[in-house]
Amino acid sequence: MSKQPGLAMIVSGPSGVGKDTVIDAWKKLDQTVERVIAYTTRAPREGEVDGVDYHFVSREKFQKLADEGYFLEHKEVHGNFYATPLVDLERMVAEGKTAILKIDVQGALSVMELRPDIISVFILPPSWEELERRLTDRGTEDKEKLIKRLRNAQLEIDQAPHYRYQIVNDIVENCVAKLQQIKEELCPTSF
Question: Largest Cα–Cα distance in the chain?
Fold first, then answer.
């Protein structure tokens, strides 16, 4: 079996841990890093752009794509549906990219079962208190939704041992350096 030219990597972690910040910083450091844009039925948050942050679609369109086998995996999280497009992932890997799947724990566990070749990384907060502060400061949810996110965050953190790597996001640059080190160990000839 021939080795694929690129690498696929799952990056998961609880809400507020800084996944987007870390991935964006890594993309600036390494031009081969590209995020696979997930599909979701949730409404865009302020500042989010369709096709950049997510592909925002209706529940009907999402179900149609799921029925057609367009997704590698799809799950309901926080009352909305999310999915990973298989075609985009395969294209990026074939082009020699580091294809990043920023997906929740449920989706990640499904992908790990379906595709054990995909490297899994769980981003952890430096402390529970820091995670609470980040989620509160974000100001994107009312109190009830914030409590739900914190409850879900604990359940997600409990799943971290299922990932091949766990990295604490204490300082963004340190987290990015660890991701880059993992990539270079797995793909020493990629630039």
Answer: 52
